[in-house]
Write a structure and sequence with these properties.
Oligomer: single chain
Helix content: 25-40%
Shape: globular
Distance between the termini: 28 Å
Radius of gyration: 23 Å
Strand content: 15-25%
Number of strands: 21
Number of domains: 2
Pfam families: Amidohydro_3
Structural class: alpha/beta
Protein name: Dihydroorotase
CATH superfamily of the largest domain: Metal-dependent hydrolases
CATH architecture of the largest domain: Alpha-Beta Barrel
GO molecular function: hydrolase activity, acting on carbon-nitrogen (but not peptide) bonds, in cyclic amides; hydrolase activity, acting on carbon-nitrogen (but not peptide) bonds, in linear amides
Length: 541
């Protein structure tokens, strides 16, 4: 846009910065104007200071598109409200520069379900979100609930396969009947038509793990008809990771859906180093023309629920059935044997690593356990680790999240460096406890540690992974890039100081070096502090 075409005045002008536009191209000096929620890129100094209601001086800083967190579990955090801890948790994402979160990952979303299944599902959501966030018949209901709760950044959601299964069959270990599969496909079709971003699976988690490949193919074909991706937490990320990747490839090929592998890793001592095989496999498929990508978080530890450390049969029937089994000494012994010997088709995190690598992140009624490993708690009590885990799950009604220290740095770096890998926090914002620091630190950690300190990525390459690449994968039209007419989602950061400060001890510490964040044309972070503005919305894609 030439000087003659400039708007008569800007709501916001960001002057003097290095523009890294999200495409991967080299940064260049430029000013950026915002008017009515849209962007105008200006040659340096072309717009006078008086031509804007607000000016941010960005000399020595980078001006980039707002970061897109492609993998979160933030579906219900704003619905918790301030009294439920939601405000503090949402703040952590915004302060690290995230202007759009994509939730509904790993097969778990807050929709859709048959009406008669909604009450039971509403009760189950407490385990994941630590509060009553509801369950909804479709994407439209989910979006309407969020519309009534102001938020600082934007939210998009995938449709969770596990939720579909629970919403039609319930939490049971059996194949879906043909009529049930048709109902699941219809619910998925409706939510995708309303604007959900794609289909996700979490094939290590019940009830999604109870499904065979054919069921997932049928559902992924629905996503393909909408031109939306199949996003998967593989059935195994440990000793059988290559086999699990091949299943995902088969699902993509048979269904016609683009494939996106969530938080790609090779975890557990039997899988360390296997990124040397999985990444060339993905690269070869891309060279053949297959549309396949992945995301990654820059940590060697993951986080999930403690119940996922138990064999799938233990969770058959849902929380009530699990609780009953945990109260039965014979069933506990059976769980112990399953962990020691393995179960066909089960990832078996503890068997691949050990209870000494599993620490408690959040146990609301037993905060003294938080930050300690199950092995440490067992040694202190003179008890068996499985019994300690079982007692904690029963006492907390299933509401226990954990951190699993299961990866090695070399594998993390390989995935980060892959040209088709984008960045996702896999953040699980839940009130209380010691959540994984990735929810507050992922994006600054990439920029500080892996760009500035280690030189693993070029600055422009890293920003592309966080913005333009992510927006393209999930259909975020007009986002993820800085160009004339694009949505005004921006972040201004200091490349010399940007860094994560969140730790496993203090997991919500805000980062250094993030100066300003703009969402929907409104400044939501200024000088590293929230402004209180709430322009965010649920995006229908």
């Amino acid at each position: 846009m030439s000087g003659l075409d400039l708007p008569s005045g800007f709501d916001l002008l960001i002057r003097g910065g290095l523009l890294v536009d999200g495409t991967g191209r080299p940064g260049r000096p430029a000013d950026v104007g915002v008017a009515a929620g849209r962007l105008t890129v200006l040659p340096p100094g072309e717009a006078p200071r008086t031509g804007a209601a607000e000016v941010i001086e960005a000399r020595g800083r980078v001006v980039a598109p707002g970061f897109v967190d492609v993998h979160t579990h933030s579906d219900g955090v704003t619905l918790l409200g301030a009294s439920g801890g939601g405000s503090t948790l949402v703040r952590a994402s915004v302060l690290q520069g995230v202007t759009t979160e994509i939730c509904g990952n790993c097969g778990s979303s807050l929709f859709p379900a048959l009406p008669e299944r909604l009450p039971a599902m509403r009760a189950e959501t407490r385990i994941t979100f630590g509060g009553d966030v509801g369950a909804y018949a479709d994407f439209a209901g989910f979006a309407a609930a969020h519309a009534g709760v102001p938020r600082a950044n934007h939210l998009a959601s995938l449709v969770g396969h596990g939720t579909l299964r629970a919403g039609v069959l319930g939490p049971v270990d059996r194949p879906a009947r043909p009529d049930e599969l048709r109902t699941m496909c219809a619910l998925l079709d409706a939510s995708l038509a309303q604007g959900a971003a794609g289909l996700s699976t979490g094939l290590i988690y019940t009830p999604g793990s109870y499904a065979g490949t054919d069921e997932v193919v049928a559902l992924a074909a629905v996503a393909a008809r909408h031109g939306k991706p199949y996003v998967t937490h593989l059935r195994d990320e440990m000793s059988r990771v290559e086999e699990a990747l091949e299943e995902a490839i088969e699902i993509s090929r048979r269904s016609g859906a683009a494939l996106h592998v969530s938080h790609h890793k090779t975890a557990g001592r039997y899988a360390w180093g296997r990124t040397e095989r999985t990444l060339p496999r993905i690269a070869a498929l891309r060279a053949e023309g297959m549309d396949v990508t992945c995301d990654v978080y820059p940590y060697t530890a993951g986080s999930t629920v403690l119940a996922a450390m138990l064999p799938p049969w233990a969770n058959d029937g849902g929380l009530a059935a699990l609780t009953a089994r945990l109260g039965d000494p014979a069933q506990r012994d059976r769980m112990r044997r399953s962990i020691a010997e393995g179960v066909p088709g089960w990832e078996n995190t503890v068997g691949n690593g050990g209870w000494d690598r599993i620490s408690v992140a959040c146990a609301p009624r037993h905060p003294q356990t938080e930050g300690r490993t199950i092995a440490e708690l067992a040694a202190s009590a003179g008890a068996d680790p499985l019994d300690v885990a079982a007692d904690l799950l029963v006492a907390e009604a299933g509401e226990v999240t954990i951190i699993s220290h299961s990866m090695v740095e070399e594998d993390v770096r390989r995935v980060l460096a892959a040209p088709y890998a984008m960045i996702g926090s896999d953040g699980v914002p839940k009130p209380g406890g010691r959540p994984h620091p990735r929810w507050a630190g992922t994006f600054p950690r990439v920029l500080g540690r892996y760009v500035r300190e280690l030189g693993l990525l070029r600055l422009e390459e890293a920003v592309h992974k966080m913005t333009g690449m992510a927006a393209a994968r999930f259909g975020l039209t007009g986002r993820g890039v800085i160009r004339d007419g694009a949505h005004a989602d921006l972040v201004v950061f200091d490349p010399a100081t940007v860094a994560d400060r969140a730790t496993f001890t203090e997991p919500l510490l805000p980062p250094a070096g993030i100066g300003a964040v703009v969402a929907g044309g409104v400044v939501v972070v200024r000088d590293g502090e929230e402004t209180g503005a709430r322009p965010g919305k649920v995006l229908a894609l």
